[in-house]
Amino acid sequence: MEVIIEPTADAASVLAARIVADLVRKKPAAVLGLATGNTPLPMYRELIRLHAEEGLDFSGVTTFNLDEYLGLEPAHPASYHHFMWENLFRHINVRPEQVHLPDGLTQDVPSCCAAYEASIRGAGGIDLQVLGIGGDGHIGFNEPVSSLSSRTRIKTLTERTRSDNAFAFSTPDAVPHHVITMGIGTIMESREVLLLGFGGRKADALEATVEGPVSQMVPASVLQFHQRVRVILDEAASVKLKRADYYKHVYANKPGWQRI
Length: 260
Ligand code: F6R
Fold this sequence. Notes:
By secondary structure, the protein is an alpha/beta fold. It has helices spanning 9-26, 41-54, 80-87, 109-122, 159-164, 184-188, 203-211, 244-252; strands spanning 2-6, 31-34, 62-65, 67-69, 99-100, 128-131, 153-156, 178-181, 193-197, 229-234. Helix 1 packs across helix 2 (41-54).
């Protein structure tokens, strides 16, 4: 794992966007795994800027989102379909037919999940997966005690996650209990992972993820087994890391050829 600590979430997001942009420039047909939530929003804003001002071209890119609420239609303001179109897709030139999210209205969850896995495989697999992290260490909606080799499937949200996400709904009770999420095994097959974590509320989960034992209780900790993970944090999210000074030293002294 490479841990990069930037002074602010904005600086961290600009760096994350540069990493995504670098991949898209080198591989115009890149397959991106994308996340929703508050964390990637400043990175999406920077990608939109790079598209508008520097011509970053998404026309060959394919995307797969991590998750979607079950029971919400795409037009629902709290659906992840809606989130992605509002916050990224409609501002860039990605082709609608190359954008994928799980179908929150499916009447056949197992087939829908199997088809999602098949379409990731059919696209050649995910080149770069962007992740946020829950305060309990979840990635995607793989809550604690999710199988570390799970595939895309239905999950039941914890009450903590429902309450964290309630701001997007008219009432806390309106937050669905069920979601479809890529599994941890699915995420682990992506060729590269960018895990973003901002703010003090994520500090405990990030300490457990980076420096704790690998455990189903902290799903993100399985990323310790992935060969190519960059964890990009702001200062506030890094305060519990025991080796923060070392991570900063490593990053400051990287050989030029390793930098993006
Ligand atoms: C979103 C997702 C979740 C979020 C996590 C953090 O697609 O899969 O794992 O990344 O819940 O959410 P925020 O960024 O809102 O703190």
